[in-house]
Amino acid sequence: xxxxxxxxxxxxxxxxxxxxxxxxxxxxxxxxxxxxxxxxxxxxxxxxxxxxxxxxxxxxxxxxxxxxxxxxxxxxxxxxxxxxxxxxxxxxxxxxxxxxxxxxxxxxxxxxxxxxxxxxxxxxxxxxxxxxxxxxxxxxxxxxxxxxxxxxxxxxxxxxxxxxxxxxxxxxxxxxxxxxxxxxxxxxxxxxxxxxxxxxxxxxxxxxxxxxxxxxxxxxxxxxxxxxxxxxxxxxxxxxxxxxxxxxxxxxxxxxxxxxxxxxxxxxxxxxxxxxxxxxxxxxxxxxxxxxxxxxxxxxxxxxxxxxxxxxxxxxxxxxxxxxxxxxxxxxxxxxxxxxxxxxxxxxxxxxxxxxxx
Length: 358
Prior knowledge:
mainly alpha; 15 helices; 0% strand; globular; disordered N terminus; Lysylphosphatidylglycerol synthase TM region
């Protein structure tokens, strides 16, 4: 018989549950936008600089922003044989909108992706494999970028100590992740050991929260390994190229915003901007707020001002960048979700993948 939770136990569950996540999210966002960022830059000045954009500059920013919106779908097409580009775009927009608005939105975004892909005719095994592999490839690029940026930065100026630390951390994590991935995919025994260790850690955490721990991770890992090997043999290069391109386009959008807002970033070498971009992408790997709202803005503005961009120009460029990458996907994703709810993209029969194991 389960004992009733003591009042302090119930309080801990509320604090660590949905209410706690909501309070944490609102607190972090308010603290950053109302407390920290105004100490760095003047919002009024930033808005003036954005309003001063010419029609040509606005058209350029919008064009690159539109390209960014569709740049992640090819990775899904590469990871799910038989998936069409427009269906991938539909699911990506809807899941991004949820991830950007709901506390711990990444989990809900994954659920939305799974539901939509299932309605497109794909099996749960194919969907689970795609979710895992796209996440792995995306994070591998994130971890590699600080080290690459540091290598380029050494050629144009003295690297900032903070970037050096981030690059070293990213490199170490990248090596660990790649080693674990290679071991898990190529060696059955290594995959079983890693899965068992991860399950023990997850079980310990779950028990501390009075929840049952996970099970069957070794068996699931083996199924994932066997299902993924054939796909990766045929598509690892395509997946890698798609992941890199999506990050490059996102960086180009930040660079475009910086170059056009008051021209303050025109003389700043693009490698320096890449360094700031890479560090922020590394910082925001842990989803403290939905879509890294507040955290990303603070990291970008602080990084750009640290390398010589004026506070107003940095804030204006970053807020414009985040308008196109955080806010705009929300209404677009809602539209995509409504279209899907009306039956757009759904199929009646399972899709049989071509050229890869299902």
